[in-house]
Write a structure and sequence with these properties.
By secondary structure, the protein is of the alpha/beta class. The protein is built from 7 helices and 8 strands, in the order ββαβββαβαβααβαα.
């Protein structure tokens, strides 16, 4: 993993996060952070990233980390990012399901990128109810200019001057299911310090992007369209597709 190349942090807002505020959680340490995670999900607003393996290619891998399964949650209140490494949960997947249920139905605003696929995962594997998936950076960019290429790395570069470069360490593609035993190779998929830093910066960038996108959408007269039509339509479309 080559880690993170930070070109600059001064276009719209400084984006950095202290190493001590990046927490990677595995099966053995989960109980130590469970209460803290639930407190984060009770905040007014958070950003998140969900990264999954998927042999069927129904899940587009935003960060091109095709051998990792994780969810990251960024708390602006604490300026802290929690990364739950799902690949390490081999004996107790029940706690993962409980976390995802809490995540799906919590009343905090959830800010993400390409959230349609995340909601599809939740509807298929976790529960049939969600709440407050209120902001999608991808949809906001599409409304502003539907002719552009808005891959996540391009957005990060254009908004914040951040370039994420992750080496693909895939040894074997493994489709994720919370209800099936994971392949033994999954245990080798650790999240090291460099990778954790990159995930954290990306997750925080989604949070900070909201104010920038809101201003641009407002200037173009599309703020109401985004929040009152486009965003409520996403779970409806997922339900229709299912």
């Amino acid at each position: 993993i080559s880690g993170v190349l930070n070109k600059s942090y001064n276009l719209k807002s400084d984006i950095n996060i202290k190493d001590e505020n990046i927490v990677v959680i595995n099966e053995n340490t989960y109980k130590n952070y469970e209460k803290e995670l639930f407190e984060v999900l009770a905040e007014e607003k958070i950003s998140y990233m969900l990264n999954l393996n998927d042999d069927n290619q129904a899940f587009v891998n935003t960060l091109n980390l095709n051998d990792k399964n994780f969810i990251s949650l960024y708390s602006n209140k604490l300026d802290k990012c929690y990364i739950v490494n799902m690949d390490t949960f081999k004996n107790d997947k029940k706690v993962l399901k409980e976390l995802f249920e809490k995540f799906a139905m919590s009343s905090c605003e959830k800010l993400g990128y390409n959230i349609k696929q995340d909601i599809r995962f939740l509807f298929t594997n976790i529960c049939d109810k969600i709440d407050k998936f209120s902001y999608d950076l991808l949809i906001a960019c599409y409304l502003l200019d539907s002719t552009r290429n808005y891959k996540f790395d391009i957005i990060l570069d254009e908004l914040f001057g951040i370039i994420l470069s992750f080496e693909d360490t895939t040894k074997k593609q493994v489709q994720l299911s919370l209800f099936e035993a994971m392949d033994e190779t999954s245990n080798e998929n650790i999240i090291d310090e460099n990778l954790a830093k990159g995930i954290s910066l990306a997750t925080k960038a989604i949070y900070i992007s909201k104010d920038i996108m809101d201003e641009r959408l407002k200037n173009d007269g599309m703020l109401d369209l985004f929040y009152n039509i486009e965003m409520p339509l996403v779970p409806v479309l997922v339900s229709m597709e299912r």
